Amino acid sequence: MERKERYNFHGMAKLHAPNTTPLPAPDRREVLTKAVVRAARALELSQSRVAATLGVSDPTASRMFAEKYLLDPARKEWELGALFVRLFRSLDSIVASDEKARAWLAGENQALGARPIDLLARAEGMVRVLHYLDSARGRI
After folding, report:
1. Which backbone phi and psi does 23 adopt, to 5 degrees?
2. What are the pLDDT digits (tens) for 68-84?
3. Please, how many CA atoms are within 13 Å of residue 12, restricted to the half-sphere of its CB?
């Protein structure tokens, strides 16, 4: 690859990077799966709890954490994984700390009528927590 020299207004040589081709877009399955795993690790959720949240088996969650399984866009796990990442991002934008996020999830919440962590095992519970966080973000 050759470097091309161009001159700027002051007559000084200006080096330009060699022409390169852009990198291919990452696989969306890999992106969402990694995001779910990273969010779960930040919140210190067990693989078993993540499995229940996504509606997959414990062995599937284990393979996912070991980067041997990718979420499937044609299955319900995909939608639940996207909701889980959205929930994590909403919570992170409010509390700005993994430690505070973990404490909030584990604490009793009168508005939700339960600990948010306990609601994540069912899709309707996760949606309730997400709506609660969205409304809290709207007030900030």
Report:
1. -70, 150
2. 999 999 999 999 999 99
3. 2
pLDDT given for residue 24 in this prediction = 77
Taking the alpha carbons of 113, 80, 45, 96 in that order, is the dihedral positive or negative? Answer: negative
Query: CA 84, CA 113: separation in Å to the nearest integer?
Result: 20
What residue segments make up the domains of the chain, in order of their start?
28-139
- Angle CA(103)–CA(51)–CA(25) in degrees, nearest 5? 95
Element (H, E) at 15: strand 13-16
pTM for the complete prediction?
Answer: 0.81
- Residue 114 pairs in a beta bridge with 109
Of the candidates 103, 108, 109, 115, the residue with the CA atom closest to the CA atom of residue 136? 109
Name the pairing type of β-strands 13-16 and 4-7: antiparallel
